[in-house]
């Protein structure tokens, strides 16, 4: 008769403990919002609301998104930051700041200021008249004001300090600007241009810090020589990845990684991490079958060789049936399944410290 009585005494204590841990977990979310800056890798539809041709708010984009809706994400479904938001127990996708469907009550738990075709360099965002990085920062300041009006000054400040700020850009500075036009290439060597971009990244992080951000993820760039568009035009190497572009990406990522170390020393209380998609994406491209993919050199959309944006839409009758078998959705952007794998990898290898 001794044993059951002990059990009876313990049960309520256990219940209270479970209840308390549940309450603390539910109320004290470590990261209340994910706040996103960058290019098409993380644009959730901001370009739908500015005059530019860098768009994807039409079929077949979004055909595997919730409700099969084209949102302006450059993929068949969700993008990496959507999966990261979900992994943090927040919401399954992060809305675009310029979308009038959403309000500050939505943005309070995550928002994207990103704009497809933008870069660190103002000259890059000028190519297709998209939102430059400095303008994304202005929108962010406006967002902070709205958040303060919505939840009050002190709660807003607390939320900003706990929120995870993420950047993902740089590819367009090289492929859409430096290697496409002679302007920057006549001013800078590739290495000098990387330093120029890293300098803009540094000022950007310092500005976020001065605005109260403490948890920041600086995004690296992918093995951009392996994007289908670059492979299609790589005649000399039999449509292999363009090694020069991959080397540039490695060098630039190395500079961003060093910048991360430096700023963690310089800025008290900052927790800056470098989130690098390079290795995982290169591995997927080199060993697609290990990840359940069948095609890595060509994209799903249209002929899979050149198309993105409106061209992808026009020729979409040629598109593949099952995008989950393809690493790339259009000639420049990964499929939803690839985005999910990259997001998991980044959460595990760079963002885990913010989870608990
Ligand atoms: C980009 O343009 C903005 C706005 O004109 C300006 O404040 C900023 O200094 C420019 N950035 C660079 C690196 O030239």
From TrEMBL:
Keywords, alphabetical: Signal
InterPro entries found in the cross-reference section: GDSL (IPR001087), GDSL_lipolytic_enzyme (IPR050592), SGNH_hydro_sf (IPR036514), SGNH_plant_lipase-like (IPR035669)
Name of a matching Pfam family: Lipase_GDSL
Molecular-function annotations in GO: hydrolase activity, acting on ester bonds
Signal peptide coordinates: 1-28
SUPFAM superfamilies according to UniProt: SGNH hydrolase (SSF52266)
Family affiliation: Belongs to the 'GDSL' lipolytic enzyme family.
Protein's name according to its UniProt entry: GDSL esterase/lipase
